[in-house]
Specification:
- With 99 residues, the chain is an alpha+beta fold.
- The chain has a domain of 68 residues.
- Helices cover 46% and strands 22% of the residues.
- It has three helices and five strands; from the N terminus they run βαβαβββα.
- Strands 1-5-2-4-3 form a five-stranded mixed β-sheet.
- The radius of gyration is 19 Å and the shape is elongated.
- The chain starts with a strand and ends with a helix.
């Protein structure tokens, strides 16, 4: 887990509500679901939970923060790199045709 989104939330809200808000924001911003959500272990009271299909797991974090893990970050980077390479090759082909 190297890539993700750190979310600061109101620590007075129930954990489920905090995770739901963070996941909805993540989905709007990135167009996909996070792989997992991580919270301070004290909030889970010893067991993991599932919120909207997302596993909520323990991680050493301040109580007011959530960490949403990016799903398949390496695949996303690899796919985007391939797209950019293809665009570059197309631009070169068009330039060669003009010459």
């Amino acid at each position: 887990m190297n890539t993700g989104m750190l979310w600061q939330c109101d620590s007075k809200k129930p954990l489920r509500e905090r995770v739901e808000e963070a996941v909805k924001y993540y989905q709007r911003k990135y167009g996909s679901d996070p792989e997992a959500a991580y919270v301070n272990p004290k909030l889970l009271e010893g067991h993991e939970m599932i919120v909207d299909g997302i596993a909520v797991k323990p991680m050493r974090l301040p109580i007011s923060l959530l960490w949403l893990e990016v799903a398949d970050a390496a695949k996303g980077i690899e796919r985007r790199s391939a797209e950019l390479l293809q665009q570059g090759e197309q631009a070169l082909t068009q330039m060669e045709m003009r010459l």
